[in-house]
């Protein structure tokens, strides 16, 4: 029980710390500013969660988000049709990677590490110098100001609800998680493991695309290196949200909460604490370790 | 407590007298995306020295420095947003990307915050930009070269980090200079990444295929490496333009003592961070006449004055210049036409 509550608990703890350090931040305006960059992180974390559900790891999600960002800021604005085709094509590449990993029984870490350089290279080809501009419709979606609830919180709720329903409440969602939990049993029951792997990787590609688009909608302009930090953030988000590296044990709601916690702990909390500049970089790492260590300690006590 | 603060504010106002609006209650933040090389360290040092004094003198209430953990755009965008929430009145920024931070910069402007960018500038129109005239620096290199090598001849060019606006501007200036001085011809070009080791390797690789060169035009941080490469190949030493690094000026001094070697040195001073700080302070002071694009001179040394500057530079460091408020006001004035 505690295990399921843990992601929400750590988020609450970080929020309390922020409220104590800077009460002004706990407001409609404050949440908008602190959390809007958490939307792309949450989407990237969900993307990572799908591969982790299948006992794999995606080391290319960060550069993939950067590539999508470059396409969004250039082709999707100037030639929407080409942009859409390229983005759909990149999801297809993800699906093919899933098939390749399954058929040749390759370690996903190696394949996706290789792909991370491919995406990075393509991003630089699309956008050799920082620049470009997000399409106007994307900008207006991301700057939407709903009444009462700040947009980032609304977006997080919607993302968590949709993925939770799809992965935890539908019968094919059970199969997808089962491919990571007990592949042998699934195969004996007649399910195609090739298909589950393809679906999981395609979903990762889909959410990677959404993450890149959301990121550019917020920053308004792109840079080939813009997503590089997302690879590790997304993995940490899944684990913090109660996921495990093996066994198909993941939680979409936890992953979204984990991403929000990381986004808050790494940046606003650190800025509000007034740490001397020489120590800021180290403090950022320390907060990550403390948050993740707390999760491991509590889930161990449960067993 | 509050009363005391108000009183001291009044006292400061009476004491200074000259200010249009008082800035002693204003807080200025510095958002920095990277601190991992000697230039950036010198930049932070200069900034720390000047702002510490400004806070002690009650010119501003606070001047805090925030460095991001990685060199990445989203991290710095988030940092700028947090600084907005923190209630800072101005943000001085060395940005990770000229364009990709514009969203966050716009939010800061909309919240009434003054944004001043330098070195890594931002293109969002509402922000101020403190820019060094790199193009003129490149052109001046060739002009100076013409003084040392009046007969002209072949030149080797060392480029900086590919894809950056700085490399682009210096290169354009050099081309312009060569066009004005047809006696010079660029016979080779290598990438030195503003780094002595990289430059040395690159120059050593191209040397065997080059005709005799009389001079090297470069971008700073690469002159000493080039000199080493020529020495290792036992080739005659050309006129190498220097870039204000301590090792470069030291080598120049040794050569000058040996046989009167002549050259010229120029680079952007890391202390330009302090100019950005004063620009922010002046805008907060209520000045409306400051142009959003401020061009500032680069820091140059000639045959006569480089030896005086050398002892002041830290081992492995870069020559710098910290702006006082008066100098900053003069620099702003030079930009108002």
Which segments of chain A are poorly predicted (pLDDT under 50) over 5 or more consecutive residues?
A: none
Under the CATH scheme, the architecture of the largest domain in chain B is 3-Layer(aba) Sandwich
Instruction: Give the total of domains of chain A.
Output: 1
The ordered string of helix (H) and strand (E) elements of chain B is: HEHEHEHEEHEHEHEHEHEHEEHH
- Structural class designation of chain B: alpha/beta
Care to describe what's here?
The complex is a heterodimer of chains A (303) and B (337). Chain A has 16 helices and no strands. Chain A has 303 residues and is an all-alpha fold. Chain A has one domain: ABC transporter involved in vitamin B12 uptake, BtuC (Orthogonal Bundle), CATH 1.10.3470. By secondary structure, chain B is α/β, with parallel strands linked by helices. Chain B folds into 2 domains: 2-126 and 269-299 and 320-335, Response regulator (Rossmann fold, 3-Layer(aba) Sandwich), CATH 3.40.50.2300; 134-267, Rossmann fold. Helix content of chain B is 45%, strand content 17%. Chain B is built from 12 helices and 12 strands. The radius of gyration of chain B is 22 Å and the shape is elongated.
Give a short summary of the structure.
The complex is a heterodimer of chains A (303) and B (337). With 303 residues, chain A is mainly α. Helices cover 76% and strands 0% of the residues of chain A.
Write out key terms for the chains shown.
heterodimer; A: 303 residues; mainly alpha; ABC transporter involved in vitamin B12 uptake, BtuC; 16 helices; B: 337 residues; alpha/beta; Rossmann fold; 2 domains; six-stranded parallel sheet; four-stranded parallel sheet; 45% helix; 17% strand; elongated
């Amino acid at each position: 029980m505690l295990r399921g509550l843990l992601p929400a608990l750590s988020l609450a703890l970080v929020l309390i710390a922020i409220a104590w350090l800077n009460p002004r931040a706990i407001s409609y305006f404050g949440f908008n500013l602190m959390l809007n960059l958490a939307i792309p992180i949450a989407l990237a974390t969900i993307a990572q969660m799908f591969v982790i559900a299948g006992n794999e790891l995606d080391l290319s999600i960060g550069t993939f988000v950067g590539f999508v960002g470059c396409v969004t800021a250039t082709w999707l604005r100037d030639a929407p049709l080409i942009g859409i085709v390229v983005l759909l094509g990149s999801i297809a590449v993800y699906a093919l990677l899933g098939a390749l990993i399954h058929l040749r029984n390759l370690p996903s870490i190696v394949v996706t590490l290789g792909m991370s350089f491919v995406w990075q290279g393509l991003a630089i080809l699309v956008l050799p110098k920082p620049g470009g501009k997000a399409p106007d419709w994307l900008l207006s979606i991301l700057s939407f100001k709903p009444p009462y609830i700040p947009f980032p919180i609304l977006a997080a709720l919607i993302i968590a609800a949709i993925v939770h329903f799809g992965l935890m409440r539908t019968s094919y969602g059970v199969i997808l998680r089962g491919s990571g939990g007990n592949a042998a049993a699934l195969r004996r029951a007649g399910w195609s493991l090739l298909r589950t792997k393809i679906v999981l990787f395609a979903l990762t590609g889909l959410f990677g695309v959404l993450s890149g688009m959301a990121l550019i909608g917020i920053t308004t302009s792109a840079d080939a290196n813009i997503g590089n930090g997302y690879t590790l953030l997304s993995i940490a988000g899944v684990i913090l949200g109660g996921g495990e590296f093996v066994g198909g044990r993941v939680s979409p709601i936890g992953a979204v909460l984990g991403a929000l916690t990381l986004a808050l702990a790494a940046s606003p909390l650190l800025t509000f604490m007034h740490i001397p500049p020489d120590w800021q970089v180290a403090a950022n790492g320390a907060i990550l370790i403390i948050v993740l260590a707390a999760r491991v300690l509590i889930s161990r006590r449960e067993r | 407590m509050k009363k005391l603060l108000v009183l001291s504010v009044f006292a400061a106002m009476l004491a200074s007298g000259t200010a249009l609006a008082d800035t002693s209650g204003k807080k200025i933040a510095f958002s920095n995306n990277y601190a991992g090389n000697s230039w950036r360290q010198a930049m932070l040092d200069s900034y720390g020295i000047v702002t510490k004094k400004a806070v002690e003198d009650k010119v501003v209430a606070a001047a805090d420095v925030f460095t991001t953990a990685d060199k990445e755009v989203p991290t710095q965008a988030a940092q700028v947003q947090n600084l907005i929430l923190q209630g800072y009145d101005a943000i001085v920024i060395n940005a990770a990307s000229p364009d990709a931070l514009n969203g966050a910069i716009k939010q800061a402007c909309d919240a009434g915050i003054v944004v001043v960018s330098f070195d890594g500038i931002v293109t969002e129109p509402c922000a101020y930009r403190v820019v060094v005239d790199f193009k003129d620096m490149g052109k001046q290199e060739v002009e100076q070269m013409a003084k040392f090598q009046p007969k002209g001849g072949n030149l080797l060019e060392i480029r900086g980090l590919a894809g950056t606006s700085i490399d682009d501007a210096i290169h354009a200036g050099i081309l312009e200079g060569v066009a004005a001085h047809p006696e010079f011809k660029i016979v080779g070009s290598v990438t030195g990444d503003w780094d002595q080791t990289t430059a040395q390797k690159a120059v050593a690789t191209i040397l065997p295929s080059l005709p005799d060169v009389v001079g090297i035009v470069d971008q700073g941080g690469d002159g000493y490496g080039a000199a080493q490469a020529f020495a290792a190949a036992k080739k005659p030493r050309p006129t190498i333009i220097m870039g204000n690094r301590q090792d470069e000026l030291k080598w120049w001094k040794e050569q000058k003592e040996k046989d009167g070697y002549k050259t010229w040195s120029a680079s952007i001073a890391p202390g330009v961070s302090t100019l950005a700080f004063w620009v922010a302070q002046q805008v907060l002071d209520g000045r409306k006449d400051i142009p959003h694009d401020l061009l500032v001179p680069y820091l140059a040394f000639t045959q006569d004055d480089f030896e005086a500057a050398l002892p002041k530079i830290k081992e492995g460091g870069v020559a710098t210049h910290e702006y006082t408020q008066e100098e900053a006001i003069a620099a702003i004035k030079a930009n108002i036409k």
